[in-house]
Amino acid sequence: MAGGSESDAVGLSCARCAKPAHLQCPKCVQLKLPREAASFCSQDCFKASWTSHKSLHSNPISGNSTQQDSGWLYCLREGRARTPTLPHFDWTGPLRPYPISQKRTVPTHIQQPDWAIDGIPKIEPNSDLQYVVEIKTPDQIERMRETCLIAREVLDAAARIIQPGITTDEIDVVVHEATIAAGGYPSPLNYNFFPKSCCTSVNEIICHGIPDARKLQDGDIVNVDVSVYYKGVHADLNETFFVGNVDEACKRLVQHTYECLGIAIAAVKPGVRFREIGEIISRHASMSGLSVARSYCGHGIGELFHCAPNIPHYAKP
Predict the structure, then answer these.
(1) pLDDT tens-digit series, residues 83-96
(2) Rounded to 10 degrees, what is the CA torsion of 104, 205, 253, 308?
(3) Strand partners for 241
(4) Average pLDDT, integer, range 285-305
């Protein structure tokens, strides 16, 4: 294995541990790959990352001009722009974005939501159902059952390919094609310019991660969030999967999160306040030594992708 070389890495973070970088991979420098993915704080971090890092040297999606011409670029401006250069951000962990492929197409015979063409939802933002909880009709419930079943089958199809070495873009391909094969539209696609057909959130990403060219590594966890639009209604579900050999801390996190989901579902019945769901989740998470992310919450679905009720996952919202 070639050793990392001292180079101009001032202002960059280690691709493995996010500490200040002091050296760069000489092969990446030779290939003129993005400096951010080639920077390391020490020889130890470089050596520990070598098994996964070396794939960049032969990966055709790593930033060369040929791939840029074919559409593999980094995402900017919340999906509205692309760049061949890794964007700057105040990273809180070692994960970094990779280039994304071109937008996938949907056959014209598939019923599409109102954002499919220009990326802008028209009905949803101004609907009274953002504030008023809709009591679904029997017809709506039946259509939602069909759509939710499709979404579950799509998520199961994605789960079957998850293993070390698979890119999250490959997961997106499976989700996109399985959704279309069932006659549905992948709800996230072009929703407020989101560029992919599902969300793949790896490791420290809370949610809404964009599928890209990064290969899943042994020990990762990845959440796949699938939403389907079919017969005029949406389904929305997600699940977190282990990639190869996952450490005990990650196993514990996923297990207790799943328990939070289970006890919250068990509490749902007529007469239960929406706020009680968050209290149940927060209490179990705290007893497990964990905390709850407050930046996002659950939401209603139906003929709108997002609508009331909003369900905070924390106590005393």
Answers:
(1) 988 888 888 888 99
(2) -70
(3) 222
(4) 95
Burial of 192 (0-12, 13-18, 19+ CB in 10 A): middle
Distance from C-alpha of 249 to C-alpha of 151, rounded to nearest angstrom: 29
DSSP 164-226: TT-BHHHHHHHHHHHHHHTT-EETTTTGGG--SSSEEEETT--S-PPP-SPBP-TT-EEEEEE
pLDDT above 90: residue 143: yes
Distance separating alpha carbons of residues 268 and 271, to the nearest angstrom: 9
Q: Are strands 74-76 and 221-230 parallel, antiparallel or unpaired?
A: unpaired
Distances (CA, A) of 23 to 53, 57, 147, 314: 14, 17, 51, 42
Question: Helix, strand or coil for residue 100?
Answer: strand
Residues 152-209 have pLDDT tens digits of 999 999 999 999 999 999 999 999 999 999 999 999 999 999 999 999 999 999 999 9
Q: Which residue has tokens 């039946």?
A: 142
- Does residue 30 have a pLDDT over 80? no
Chain-centre distance for alpha carbon 61: 19
* pLDDT beyond 90 at 259: yes
Nearby residues of 172 by Cβ (< 8 Å), 6 or more positions away: 104, 196, 197, 198, 200, 211
**Which of these, 228, 231, 270, lies nearest to 139 by C-alpha position?**
231
Instruction: Give yes or no for a contact between 228 and 150, defined as CB atoms under 8 angstroms apart.
Output: yes
Integer Cα distance of 43 and 29 in angstroms:
16
Per-residue burial over 58-76, b if 16 or more Cβ lie within 10 Å, else e, is ebebbbeeebbeeebbbbe
